[in-house]
TrEMBL record:
Domain of life: Bacteria
Signal sequence range: none
UniProt xrefs under Pfam families: DUF3048, DUF3048_C
Ranges in coiled-coil conformation: none
Source species: Fictibacillus barbaricus
Family matches, as InterPro entries: DUF3048_C, DUF3048_N, YerB-like_sf
SUPFAM superfamilies membership: YerB-like
Ranges for domain DUF3048: 56-194, 224-328
Name assigned to this protein: DUF3048 domain-containing protein
Amino acid sequence: MKKWYIIMMAIITVLTLSACKDTKDKVLEDGKVDKAEASDSKKDKKEDSFSAVYPLTGLGTNEKADQRAVAVMVNNHWNARPQSGLHKADIVYEVLAEGELTRFLAIFQSEMPEVVGPVRSARDYYIELSQGYDSLFVAHGFSPEAKEILYGGTVDHLNGMDYDGILFKRADFRKAPHNSYITYENIEKGMKKIGADDSGDLDMLSFLTKKSAADIEGTPAIDITISYKGGETVGFTYSEKKKTYARSSNNEPTIDRETETPIAVNNVFIVEAAHRVIDDAGRREINLSSGGDAILIQNGVAQNISWKNENGRIVPDGGAFVPGKTWINIVPTGMANTVKMQ
């Protein structure tokens, strides 16, 4: 009798332990977490907690986020590729200069490049775009219209025409006008020289939350091409893993010259604006104020929306950027024949 009692108690003990385990598993399934999971949750929460947010990327940081934006004119002639420093830019505007070649206006704020270039000459509409971010404007040369603006006393700027061989250095591996470079160290020296502020209080761009970014709907956009009349083709290819678009020129990846880092962004914003040739040199006037049709491409999908000029910035009208880096292509009227997606 005692033997059967011992066996029965052992069975009851096993069943009780099993029931306790089942209860614990059920509690976990119902949303409770054990001590280990609670620790992981606290760790994740701590990692997601930042003391500041960068205004042009929407990304959190525990560093100061009030450094002055710096806008640099970067050469995009085929003899100037690969360029230096573009991978550090928060925003890059790609806009036609003369002919069918574009130039870049690279705006740095959350990260500064060790070296950037080749630096090229200014046009009035690039200066206009840079001032939407209260940027220090950096260029080497200028059109007559740009020169009038720069030396009118309203724009903090550094120009290679004033500081060639001093702040701007000529590289021996390229020929002029494709060999002017400037370091961020020299940009800082230049700011002190001209008495420009090196910090500021930039207004934040509009960004989607993580949830709203995950819920973006639109046309699938994995490979995007922008074709210019002169035969130049700009491409963007989406990485599902990285959630970024890698840029290319004529099927050649756009990379950083020094580090070979691919140029990849989280937002591709293609905007249509009226272009007009204004002189025999082929210089242009571009309407950056009236708004118009646009394509906002992010997270593998494209949305046909509009753009607007908001205090000097070209931004989505009816949309917002996902946190991260942004590339803005300004193309002439006729975007439907210029941009292809698949």
